[in-house]
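Hey all, quick one. A colleague (J.T.) asked me to put the phenylalanine job into the tracker so the inputs and the structure tokens live in one place instead of scattered across chat threads. No bug as far as I know, just bookkeeping. Sequence used:
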Amino acid sequence: MESQNRSSFTGKLGFVLAAAGSAVGLGNIWRFPYLAAKYGGGMFLLTYIILAVTFGFSLMVAEVAIGRKTGKSPIDAFQALDRRFTWVGWLAAIIPTIILPYYSAIGGWVIKYMVGFITGQASTMANDSFFGDYIGMTVEPIVWFLVFIGITAVVVMCGVEKGVEKVSKFMMPILVVLILIIALYTIFAMDGAVDGVIYYIKPDFSHFSIMTVVAAMGQLFYSMSLAMGIMITFGSYMKKEISIEGSTHQIEIFDTGVAFLAGLMIIPAVFAFSGGDESALGKGPGLMFITLPKIFDAMPGGDIIGAAFFIMVLFAALTSAISLMETIVSIFQDKLNMKRIPACLTVLGISLVLGIATCLGYSAWSSFTIIGMQLLDFFDFISNNILMPITALATAIFVGYVLKPKAIIEEAECEGNRLKGKKLFTVMIKYIAPIFIVLILISSILDFFGIVKI
Ligand code: PHE
């Protein structure tokens, strides 16, 4: 994934795996279930899937095609196509810089739990107050955060290339199997879990609000690593004979599939443990860390399954964090003419400051909030609900009216490939996506400033 001497993926599998490695991460396992739980269960799921196959599909095709057409990283790609849009590339670059630090803070939580299970502390971690007490500590969460970001930085410094790809191929299927085992265990072995499955799968219109769409859209960008230049970068490594449509579908199905299963693993469990109390679903970011240890503790062999599970999650999180850091580093290299190691160290420095602040946001600085939000929530919100929609909007307008959809379609159809979803793509990019994103942006800003509680 070097940007100076642009390497290319060996084939379709290489591209799909690298993109899927970036896409599948904490977003699927940690973020999706808590959002689905909070924003309407089945209604959220339905909204998400509809957005993924229309909006997500079109945006991903556009980004990959821009990358492949120009063979450049995001800022240069926009600049090469139309100078007036260079700022979109810059905006795209800021987003991973905001996400990486708090992503790594959560990565640190994952390491803590992994170590906990390996050292046989399942029952301590199953305690309701464990998670809150842990993140409320001043030093330990910072230490695990440092370990996580340290591993990420070392991998990026060494160059990502083959290793990550190979390990992904091996770890990802295991992760899926483990999630399935845990979900089936909960549903069949625990009282009340079936109600949770119904809440999760059956759309109930009374649970719908505009925030369901806002949250689903933000999650879609996040989960598919869209609207921040990552797919442009990956597209630039893709060979011409590979089908953009085919690979996009595969990534989409894989990413959504893992998110769906993660929800199936967590939401019914919350129902089972709370005796069907829906308010237990509003717990937010801590959901995965509070609910899963309880299941593991109740499960025969839970120590081992818990340890294996958190190892896999750690891995999924690392591959995503690596793609985040790699993107920022390649931009620093290209734009500031830095060498790889100094660029890595600079990115690491920025991430340390923001990441440590994020950790302290739950302990020493917990009284410090920005518009009522803790730092982690604030970084998450500002990147997902504000900056990513702006980037996506600019990309859609750019592709729809400046570059024109035809250019993307031609790129997707070169060398005998086909883009069956041409019409869908054109209509989405030109009309539906821009209108939709503007509406979403307005509602999220109103919600953000507390002007309207949606
Ligand atoms: N898509 C990743 C996830 O679901 C997170 C991520 C976002 C990774 C943006 C890279 C870029 O966890």
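Adding what we noticed when we looked at it: Residues 1-5 have pLDDT under 50 and may be disordered. Residues 22-23, 25-28, 96, 99, 222-223, 225, 228, 230, 320, 323-324 surround phenylalanine (CB under 6 Å).
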